[in-house]
């Protein structure tokens, strides 16, 4: 079963069998999963997809498993919210929030990539799952490994938010904090991956893992009524998600499930870690690694593995990249919460803050469809809001105390 042709080097085009490898042995380029699209087109239709349960596996033929998934069976199919209040506030006509802040089970889009990677790891017969993470991947790997009954090792920068740390530890994983930033963690993990036969979801299983992100895009298209959005704004850490969203739109077009069209891809980063956006603005396709310093810790990757391809994705599609400061991130988190009742983490503040800027700059036209990718949940990054929300009053439990408070509140209006 399965429609995977094999792996292929993105740089020199050399082909490889579907093994747990991620780098071309000849040119060190990254490997990408290639499918037999003619066969997929013959078996996959809109009707077939919509007749299946509402989870990411309704697009199984476009995912790199040989058989049905064995873990993460309920992941995906999060809401696409028509955001009328936020649209009014931003002065645009057709705005949507793709809301993975409520992703099952660990409240970020990383549940999608991990569901694919761990199912694949089981097909490859690994008994230990591992990852280098900025937080959300740690949560998703620890939870998925627990439910699969597999051992796991999770490596993180030591200074992550409490919510991300606890939301990993609770699953009984082997959590290792590293003194350093994500790029240090990743370097160490590459060495560990050479030494131990473990399934590092974002290292040796990276080609398979990254394919899980495509389901975020398939769902957007299906939920729009089998229509490509005209503009999509995507947060970037390593730059994988934005390239896979593009791939998801191209695939649906290629197999005839959606009419040909153009989606402008916009990438969002925090000013304190914006190597990809800086390159786009400079008009170069080579980025310069940076040392991250931002409250958007989940996006704090200073040397992004897919940075080069993320830049290409934006510029080829007619999109652009933009960045926001920590203050703008917090403002955008509050704006989304107050207009749409959605509590996103700092990464979502980056995405919405950047969307607002791009609309003001005229780079995203006000009369076109716009999808804002909300990829994580605010309960995990509460530190960002500490001391930044209005203080609430505390009173005794007498009615006249409350009435006095009301009078005072109304007099301030
Ligand atoms: C990992 C992550 C991203 C983006 O990841 P890429 O490395 O660019 O694929 C976006 N948002 C959140 C909340 C994340 O955890
Ligand atoms: Zn190669």
Jot down its keywords.
13 strands; binds zinc ion; 413 residues; 15 helices; 4-stranded parallel β-sheet; single chain; binds pyridoxal-5'-phosphate; 39% helix; 6-stranded mixed β-sheet; alpha/beta; Rossmann fold
Chain-wise SSE layout:
Layout: E1 4-9, E2 15-16, E3 31-35, H1 37-43, H2 46-50, E4 80-82, H3 84-90, E5 94-99, H4 110-123, E6 128-132, H5 136-148, E7 151-157, H6 162-169, E8 174-178, H7 182-195, E9 199-200, H8 206-211, H9 214-223, E10 231-235, H10 240-254, E11 264-270, H11 275-282, H12 307-316, E12 321-324, H13 326-340, H14 346-360, E13 369-374, H15 399-412
Parallel strand pairs: 5-13, 6-7, 6-9, 7-8, 10-11, 10-13, 11-12
Antiparallel strand pairs: 1-2, 1-3, 4-5
The structure holds pyridoxal-5'-phosphate (PLP) and zinc ion (ZN).
The site of pyridoxal-5'-phosphate has 15 residues, from helix 10.
What would you call the structural class?
A: alpha/beta
Kindly state the number of beta strands.
Answer: 13
Order of helices and strands: EEEHHEHEHEHEHEHEHHEHEHHEHHEH
Q: In which range does the helix fraction lie?
A: 25-40%
Largest sheet: 6 strands, mixed
Oligomerization state? single chain
Overview of this protein structure:
By secondary structure, the protein is an alpha/beta fold. The protein has a domain at 80-106 and 210-385: 3-Layer(aba) Sandwich (Rossmann fold). Helices cover 39% and strands 15% of the residues. The strands form 3 sheets. It has a 6-stranded mixed beta sheet, with helices on both faces. A 4-stranded parallel beta sheet has the order 8-7-6-9. The chain has a 3-stranded antiparallel beta sheet with strand order 2-1-3. β6 (128-132), α5 and β7 (151-157) form a beta-alpha-beta unit. α10 (240-254) crosses α12 (307-316). The mean pLDDT is 97.
């Amino acid at each position: 079963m399965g429609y995977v042709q094999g792996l292929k080097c993105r740089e020199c085009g050399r082909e490889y069998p579907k093994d747990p490898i991620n780098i071309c042995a000849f040119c060190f380029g990254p490997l990408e999963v290639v499918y037999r699209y003619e066969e997929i087109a013959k078996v996959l239709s809109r009707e077939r997809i919509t007749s299946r349960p509402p989870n990411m596996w309704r697009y199984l033929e476009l995912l790199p498993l040989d058989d049905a998934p064995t873990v993460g069976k309920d992941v995906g199919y999060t809401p696409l919210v028509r955001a009328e209040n936020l649209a009014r506030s931003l002065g645009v006509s057709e705005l949507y929030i793709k809301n993975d802040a409520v992703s099952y089970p660990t409240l970020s889009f990383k549940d999608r990539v991990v569901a694919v990677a761990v199912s694949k790891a089981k097909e490859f017969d690994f008994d230990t799952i591992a990852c280098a993470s900025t937080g959300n991947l740690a949560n998703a790997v620890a939870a998925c490994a627990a439910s699969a009954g597999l051992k796991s090792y999770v490596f993180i920068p030591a200074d992550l938010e409490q919510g991300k740390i606890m939301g990993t530890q609770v699953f009984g994983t082997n959590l290792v904090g590293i003194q350093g930033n994500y790029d240090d963690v990743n370097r160490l993990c590459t060495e560990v991956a050479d030494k131990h036969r473990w399934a590092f979801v974002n290292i040796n299983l990276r080609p398979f893992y990254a394919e899980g992100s495509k389901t975020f895009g398939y769902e957007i298209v299906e939920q729009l009524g089998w229509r490509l959005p005209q503009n999509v704004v995507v947060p970037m850490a390593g730059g994988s998600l934005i390239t896979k969203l593009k791939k998801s739109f191209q695939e649906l077009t290629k197999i005839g499930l959606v009419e040909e069209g153009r989606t402008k891809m916009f990438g969002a980063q925090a000013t304190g870690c914006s190597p990809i956006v800086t390159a786009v603005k400079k008009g170069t396709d080579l980025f310069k690694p940076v040392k991250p310093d931002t409250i958007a810790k989940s996006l704090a990757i200073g040397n992004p593995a897919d940075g080069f391809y993320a830049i290409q994705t934006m510029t080829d599609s007619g999109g652009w990249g933009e960045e926001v400061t920590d203050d703008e991130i917090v403002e955008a988190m509050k704006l989304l919460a107050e207009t749409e009742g959605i509590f996103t983490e700092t990464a979502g503040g980056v995405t919405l803050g950047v969307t607002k800027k791009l609309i003001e700059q005229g780079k995203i036209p006000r009369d076109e469809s716009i999808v804002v990718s909300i990829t994580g949940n605010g309960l995990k990054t509460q530190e960002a809001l500490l001391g930044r929300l209005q203080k609430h009053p505390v009173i005794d439990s007498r009615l006249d105390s409350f009435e006095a408070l009301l009078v005072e509140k109304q007099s301030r209006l």
